[in-house]
Amino acid sequence: MRQMSEAQADHAAPTLEVRALRDGIVAQRELCESEAEAEALVEAWSEADGVVVEVEDLSLRTQRAGVLDPRPWEVDAEDLLYDGGYADEEEER
User: Fewest CB atoms less than 10 Å from the CB: which of 50, 68, 73, 88?
Assistant: First the structure.
């Protein structure tokens, strides 16, 4: 079993993800350890034309084991149709 060094133990896990999107495509993705670090990235990207910046708090999706939950939302099985569509879509037709 590997032991963590003191530097690794003192280093906090990233809790914020900053994504800069240009035309819906991720131009840059950064993991940040503090709100100040994320805020600096948002400020830097806010000056660029045509860029949308998203910040996600990863700590909200972290489970007890420290693994990110791959499903941030749940779909109610009753809302799904067998063809993969949603029940609401069927009513609109």
Answer: 73
Rounded Cα gap, residues 44 and 67, in angstroms: 30
Tell me, what DSSP letter sits at residue 67? -
* CA dist., res. 32 & res. 44, Å (int): 14
Q: What is the pLDDT of residues 68-77, one digit of tens each?
A: 555 555 555 5
R_g (Cα) of the chain, nearest Å: 19
Place of tokens 């990110």: 68
* H or E segment to which residue 18 belongs: strand 16-22
Which element (helix H / strand E) includes 17?
A: strand 16-22
- Prediction pTM value: 0.52
Contact (CB, 8 A) for 26 and 19: yes
Give the whole-angstrom CA distance, residue 22 versus residue 28: 9
User: Could you tell me if 16 and 31 are in contact, meaning their C-beta atoms sit under 8 angstroms apart?
Assistant: yes
